[in-house]
Structure formats: C-alpha cells, structure tokens
Amino acid sequence: MKHLPANTIEEALDRYGDRLYRLALVMLKSPMDAEDAVQETFLRYLDRLGSFQDAEHEKAWLLTVTTNQCRDVLRARQRHPQVALDQVPEEGHQPQDRAIWESLMALPEKYREVLVLHAVEGYRVEEIAKLIGKTPSAVKMRLSRGRKLLEESLGKE
C-alpha cells in the first residue's frame, strides 16, 4: 500500500523522525547535534507541509534537508572547532582557575567570545573588532560587561 504525504507535522515525525535522527546521528556522531539537525529539518518542513507530490517526494526531501543540515554543522565545526569543558586539561590549573574557566564558559556567547579572544588569546581590541565584525567601541563594551558578569558570577561562588 502506497502512503500519502503526511498531513500534519505529527504524522511526519511518526513516519520519518527515527530515520532522520539515525541519519543525523551517524553523520554527526553527537546526539545533541543530531537532535538539532532533525529539529531544524522539521522547522523547514513546516513551510513545505502539504506541498509534496507523494510520500516518496516527501521522504526524499526530508532526507536531503537533514543531510544538508548535517553538512552545515560539520562545516561549522571545521571553521569553529570547540573543546568540551570536561576535555580541557587540568594540569597546571589551580582550583580557582577551574572556577574562573567554568564561569567564563557560562557567560553569553557575545561576552565569552571577546573575553577569550582578549584575555586568553591575547588579541587587541581592534583585532577582535575585525574578527567578529563589530566596532572597537562595541568590543570594549562587551569586554566591560563580560568582565562585570564574570566578577558577579565568581562573587556568588
């Protein structure tokens, strides 16, 4: 029996969700990233709901979009490599250094980014501005606010 395209997002999730998740998991090797890729696929699917010729067209579209989402994630990983906090070596780090690092990693991205580039990597304000596409005054403001948030976070501990 040939299936018709799904009429609701729930039908599509029931029919294809597991298959798309397995595909994303194999490609990304990360359950969280795989979930994000599938979620993004279904968000895009909402815009196309009801426009598929048949179930095969729908399935092919979902598989293609999921694959492309995974490729986007893989490209982003290559451009912006990250190390998980639990993988950061602890040798030479005092307990207070660990608290600082954890507080820094908990900051919003826009503050964490400039603080790491400035304090850890040693970039000057002007260089950071060019790297992130902001003005030097915006970088200075983010540094100031980021430091304040970091101090507040460390003061609570």
Summarize the structure.
This protein has helices at residues 9-28, 31-48, 55-79, 95-106, 109-120, 125-132, 136-156.
Q: How would you describe what is shown here?
A:
The chain is mainly alpha-helical and 157 residues long. It has two domains: 9-79, Rna Polymerase Sigma Factor, Chain: A; 93-156, Winged helix-like DNA-binding domain superfamily/Winged helix DNA-binding domain (Arc Repressor Mutant, subunit A, Orthogonal Bundle). The chain has seven helices and no strands. The protein has helices at residues 9-28, 31-48, 55-79, 95-106, 109-120, 125-132, 136-156. α1 packs parallel to α3, α2 packs across α3 and α5 crosses α7. It is elongated, with a radius of gyration of 22 Å. The mean pLDDT is 83.
